[in-house]
Write a structure and sequence with these properties.
Cofactor: [4Fe-4S] cluster
Catalytic activity: 6-phospho-D-gluconate = 2-dehydro-3-deoxy-6-phospho-D-gluconate + H2O
GO biological process, one term: Entner-Doudoroff pathway through 6-phosphogluconate
Largest sheet: 8 strands, mixed
Helix content: 25-40%
Shape: globular
Structural class: alpha/beta
Keywords: 4Fe-4S, Carbohydrate metabolism, Gluconate utilization, Iron, Iron-sulfur, Lyase, Metal-binding
Strand content: 5-15%
Distance between the termini: 40 Å
EC number: 4.2.1.12
């Protein structure tokens, strides 16, 4: 393992310094929880009896505390393909726990909404806010004090960050995430995208579109493109929160079950020994590893919101300046759809996480000394699991089996990680360059301003956007409408670009990990609703967006001299009105867009006011 690259060290040191008081406050909290928090020995007899009343054959073991009891927090539902496999996991995990003298109970469940189902629908306005709900549900589940370890069953977009944020408030307990893997490959993603674009142009009908979508999303497991869900799995490996090599093994296979068994055995061992609690595992180095992996593999831009939120739950402050600096140091070594032609199954076959971890370690781009929960040594994550009889054997990874998809650091696809911070008189935003041709990294054109994505689609269908244009979609931030993804815009904007027009998107909303070839400045903050500069942009303003020089600006206009456009009235229906308190309390995207974390920090501010606060709105 090589010495740490000085650029990675510098960013890590900056995060440590910025976080030192908040991190100390967090570590004091979990130390106090370990010493005098709620746990089984402290429960009254009535409390305790309630906790094991229905434990079946585990009742005697839990009652007499013969071994550690693992709390399972599950995001199972059988509508969401990625989470459908979890239905049988708890019963299996109870058996696996008994094998090593431990017990397991389902502590609680969390919601798990599918962005694929809600994409472009009103339900998408609950998506980001569901992360707070999941974190709160996790905290409720673990609040019973019945557990010495935690196993989290979740994979997809807001679910993994939510589970982790909630569990970090119980950071005195050891914990692992237990994945279920991606579905086998179906219709090629490029073909699916081609049919979507044809539908946007009116060249195929709904039947053809549905047939293509159903052939792509066809079974149990995560969607196979490299979006937020699969980026989650990559990050958890590089933070040491999986059993090594478990991210991308398909559901329903013997190896998948063996990895789940290994996860239960590992949590039980850590719990029995009171080792590697989650709050110590998730430190500044682990957060940097997650960010490095995201950049090296061209992962989802949603994690520019989730990484700061996860970090805050552990008393760590990371911002987009840090991500930008890391991006300059970390090369792009993977091209997985939508950044390439192959999917995550192809990525896994090419060498996957083992190859990625090894080449990044050899180049000094990862912290190899993190306190991994899933293995004794972080270098174990540079190996691939296979079954030998009933036992897992981890083999050293060889060279990439597909250099068109996965390459060593010394021969990257791009010299940087492809996630740029752009700033200017329109605020701060993220520009994901890894899927965009370099000749499109700078766009200057008149803008057309919209307040929702349906207005954009109407203008597209009417031919009003058949020109060089920067599409501005505002009032899409966390406080406006929950910050939905605007992935519905990708096909029409792609059509315009293919016609030869210079096209870009600027928005205070989100684009998913499936965002593709169209230049986009997303997550603009401060958002339009709170008086951000997007509220002062007018149709016809010349907007310049450049990843080359990190700028996003209206040219030749003093925006401060304009009155902001009033926001649209909040929309009710689909339960959105129930989440009004979350919208009203949410902070900006760079901080994570969370009402829950904002309120938590306001209730117990850090004592040392000389410590820099997170980036202001």
């Amino acid at each position: 393992m090589a010495a740490l690259d000085p650029r990675i060290a510098a960013v890590t040191d900056r995060i440590v310094e910025r976080s030192k008081v908040r991190r100390r406050h967090y570590l004091d909290l979990i130390e106090a929880e370990a010493e005098r928090g709620i746990d089984r020995p402290r429960l009254s007899c009535g409390n305790f009896a309630h906790g094991f009343a229905a434990a079946g054959e585990d009742k005697a073991a839990i009652r007499t505390m013969r071994g550690p009891n693992i709390g399972i927090v599950t995001a199972f539902n059988d509508m969401l393909s990625a989470h459908q496999p979890y239905g049988r996991y708890p019963e299996q995990m109870k058996i696996f726990a008994r094998e090593v003298g431990a017990t397991a109970q389902v502590a609680g469940g969390t919601p798990a909404m599918c962005d694929g189902v809600t994409q472009g629908q009103t339900g998408m306005e609950l998506s980001l806010q569901s992360r707070d709900v999941i974190a709160l549900s996790t905290a409720v589940a673990l609040s019973h004090g019945m557990f010495e370890g935690v196993a989290m069953l979740g994979i997809c977009d807001k679910i993994v960050p939510g589970l982790l944020i909630g569990a970090l408030r119980f950071g005195h307990l050891p914990a692992l995430l237990v994945p279920a893997g991606p579905m086998p490959s179906g219709l090629a993603n490029k073909e699916k995208q081609r049919v979507r674009q044809l539908y946007a142009e009116g060249k195929v009908g709904k039947d053809e579109l549905l047939a293509a979508e159903a052939a792509s999303y066809h079974g149990a497991g995560t969607c196979t493109f490299y979006g937020t869900a699969n980026s989650n799995q990559m990050m958890m490996e590089l933070m040491g929160l999986h059993i090594p090599g478990s991210a991308f093994v398909n559901p329903g296979t013997p190896l998948r079950q063996a990895l789940t068994r290994a996860a239960v055995h590992r949590v039980a061992a850590l719990a029995a020994a009171k080792q590697r609690p989650l709050g110590l595992v998730v430190d500044e180095r682990a957060i940097v590893n997650a960010a490095v992996g995201l950049l090296a593999t061209g992962g989802s831009t949603n994690h520019a919101i989730h990484i700061p939120a996860i970090a805050r739950a552990a008393g760590i402050v990371i911002d987009w300046q840090d991500l930008d600096a890391l991006s300059a140091a970390v090369p792009l070594i993977a091209r997985v759809y939508p950044n390439g032609s192959g999917d995550v199954n192809d990525f896994h076959h090419a060498g996957g996480m083992a190859f990625t971890t090894r080449t990044l370690l050899e180049a000094g781009l990862l912290h190899g000394d993190i306190l991994a929960a899933g293995a004794d040594d972080f270098e174990d994550f540079a190996t691939n699991p296979r079954l030998e009889g009933d036992d897992i054997v981890w083999d050293a990874v060889g060279e990439s089996r597909n250099p068109d998809m996965l390459r060593p650091v010394g021969d990257p696809f791009l010299a940087d990680g492809g996630m740029r911070l752009v700033t200017g008189n329109l605020g701060r935003a993220i520009f994901k360059t890894s899927a965009v041709a370099p000749e499109r990294w700078t766009i200057e054109a008149p803008c057309r301003v919209f307040s929702d994505q349906d207005q954009v689609l109407l203008a597209f269908k009417a031919g009003e956007l058949d020109r060089d244009v920067i599409v501005v979609v505002r009032f899409q931030g966390p406080r406006a409408n929950g910050m939905p993804e605007l992935h519905k815009l990708t096909p029409p904007l792609g059509v315009l670009q293919d016609k030869g027009f210079k096209v870009a998107l600027v928005t205070d909303g989100r684009m998913s990990g499936a965002s593709g070839k169209v230049p986009a400045a997303i997550h603009c903050c401060p958002e339009a609703l709170v008086g951000g500069p997007l509220a002062r942009v007018r149709d016809g303003d010349i907007v310049r967006l450049s990843a080359h020089d990190g700028r996003i600006e209206v040219v030749g206009v003093d925006l401060d001299q304009r009155e902001p456009t009033p926001p649209p009235l909040p929309s009710w229906g689909t339960g959105r009105e129930l989440f009004a308190f979350m919208r009203h309390g949410a902070d900006n995207a760079e901080l994570g867009g969370s009402a829950m974390l904002a309120a938590m920090e306001a209730e117990q501010p850090v004592a040392d006011e000389t410590v820099p606060a997170p980036v202001p709105a």
